[in-house]
Amino acid sequence: MSLKNKYHVFFSSKKHRREFLEGVLLILPATIMNFVFGYFAFIYTFYLSFFKWNYITQPLFIGMENYVRAFNELIGGLLGARWYEAPFFIGLRNVLIYTAIVVPIQTVLAIVLAAIASSRVRGSSIFTTSYLLPGFTSSVIIALIFIYFFSQKGFINYILNLIIPGFGYPDWLYLKSLIIPAMAIVAIWGTSSNLAILFIAAMQSIPRDVLEQARLDGAGPVRRFIHVVFPLIKPTVVYAIIVGTIGALQMFDLSFVMAGPQGGIEYSGMTVVLDIYRTAFLLLDPGYASAKAIVFLTLMYIPTVLFLRKYGGGFR
Amino acid sequence: MALSKRVILGIVVIAIIAIAVGLSLNLVGQQKPSVAVVIRFSGWGAGETEVKNYEKAIGQFSKQYPGVVVKYEPISQMYHENILASFPAGAAPDVFYVDSSWASIFIKQGVLKALDDIDPGIASVKAQYYDFLLKPFMGPDGKLYGLPKDWSILFLAYNKQCLARAGLTTPPNDWPSFISSLKAITDATGKPALVDHYHWRTFVAMALAYGAPYPDFTSADSVRAWFNNDAVKKALKDYMDLYLDGYVKRMDAGKTPYVVLPRDVDSGWGGEAFGKQAACLTLEGSWMIPFIRDQFPNFKYGEQWDIAPLPGGPGGRFTLAFTVILGINSKSSHAEDAYRFAKYIAGKEGQEFLVIGLGHTLPTVKELATSPNMWPEHRKTLDQLNVYNNVYVWPTMRSDKAGAIIGTIDTVLQSHIANMKQTKTYDLNSLINDLINSIIKNL
């Protein structure tokens, strides 16, 4: 049957027409929102990236100049420019380090948490509830609490000195080498519980008879997890890694609160999105900020697509 | 899952009703004869009390001017971002707060309406205000572009008991003696003498007192010229040496430091460290006064702590003022009514209620300096005005991008202080180069 005939048959049925209408009605609000706040914003950002503007005057078309500036910052940073010469590069470098710390740890931790929560071990429900709580708390509030935890006489140093006597009392948010790890700790604590919910759902969807069969075949809990559970939740793992990576690369709230809108000591707490915000609203240069956003989007998009092509079979 | 016919019908009916109600309201609005002018007013909402007080003041204004309806739209988060975005959207309010660091660009770009063009009697209005508060809001055309609604002053707060133990009744009057007194205060009390942020505001007040010219950061050459001025270099060296000797070296020697950052004494800012009595002196503004009253009610002004003017130097004695104007949108179709409202809020009657009544800041109308309701702490800061050669309004520089430049300067200073803690030294030339280059990048 040709495609045209298939459509004809489909829409000639009253039931199918109604289903189609219902479907359109149900996706309409989300689609409109996506177009207005997603695609329109994206297209407008792209358009703006070719202009010099300060919100007040008429935008002035300057061609690729903003992109040249953005690439110069990246190259300048690579060649060792002073920190204030290359905030975009520093933001990118910081956010890559942050992502490299956060994504693997939060994913593994979330899987372990989900495994514990899905088990029938006594007390697992209390554990699940208490652990999932941070996932429902605003990241800004979490960051504000952790500012006190990371102060010189704060909780983190207290605990570390109990575990490692003589560890010392570093000022985490004031030291260039420690501020990104500090943000990573906060992010891992806050987001692994969110991801754990995904994994709990994935694990609970595994048919019990498959697990039972593996048990009857003599597989212990670890082998069951490696050879049965993990392959079955792999699409969720891929999804968690992609979502986690995109979220980590776009990090803004933690750096804004913990490092401040200027990005901290020598921009050691700067991220790309914080730099874009700073360029748009503190330096009054939304055109340049837009160009940075487009460059960043491109840099993020390519590895995401490559990763999806290699590992995303089940996910797609 | 299929939706039933009833559900779909329900959705359609609700949508039709919503559209019909919306249209009818719009039609009613169009048909209704316009009896009142509506002006929109925005500022940042600095707490529930202030917002409520503004609502009351607007109520009072409405009684006097029943033909003008003021729609108060406080912006509690990211005020400047919202205001900036409202211009291209054509949704900017008629009257809005303009911070002094934004005034220059707003005036130059024609965002604000010149009050001289609205009020032929503006000279008598100007005469009511402190002259130094109006200066940053005068355009190149000599016209005034807004009325300052309140202000804060930078002062030196000191713990009287600390000073008494060091044999002092008041802090020394000039920067060099002030700096050298800090060690004696710490030695006598066992607590850090000064808590300071190491920010632009302290440094610029100090540099001006050392004889530096008013900072002109309008071009790369002017930035280089300012930082290569001998008085600026001397002030910067003394300022950085103070932390090197007063904190870094003292800590290495296992002694109590005589100068600290707020974070060194587990505080978020100078006022908190001072209120906790973790340090004896701090350079803070009027905003510290209600904070101390609220958070440290047992730390009594007059008995335990007092206020002194900032120290001076060979160039004179200077302090900083922080103010915000009520500006009129140049595209407002009700500019005269908007001005009438701004004049009421920033006028004697409005400030008596909003500023003196709340007690958080200082009145900009000179006549209110003698108000019996003014807090004694605020009165003292006003009484000390005559000791200064000049009061400069923040951001204390000529530049269209003052906000970004100050952020950069503060980050550079903080970065060198942080490195100093690690390396136990600092390089003045490297610091000056970083300040110059980072400012030029943001011009």
Draw up the topology in text.
The complex is a heterodimer of chains A (316) and B (443).
Chain A: H1 3-12, H2 14-48, E1 51-52, E2 60-61, H3 65-78, H4 87-118, H5 124-132, H6 139-149, H7 155-163, H8 179-204, H9 208-216, H10 221-249, H11 253-258, H12 272-282, H13 286-311
Antiparallel strand pairs in A: 1-2
Helix pairs in contact in A: 2-13, 3-4, 3-13, 4-5, 4-8, 4-10, 4-12, 6-8, 8-10, 9-10, 10-13, 12-13
Chain B: H1 5-31, E1 37-42, H2 48-64, E2 68-72, H3 79-86, E3 95-99, H4 100-108, H5 122-126, H6 131-134, E4 147-159, H7 160-165, H8 175-189, E5 194-195, H9 200-209, H10 220-227, H11 230-252, E6 259-260, H12 270-275, E7 281-285, H13 288-295, E8 305-308, E9 318-328, H14 335-345, H15 348-356, H16 376-383, E10 390-393, H17 402-423, H18 428-442
Parallel strand pairs in B: 1-2, 1-3, 5-6, 5-7, 9-10
Antiparallel strand pairs in B: 3-9, 4-7, 4-8, 4-9
Helix pairs in contact in B: 9-11, 10-18, 17-18
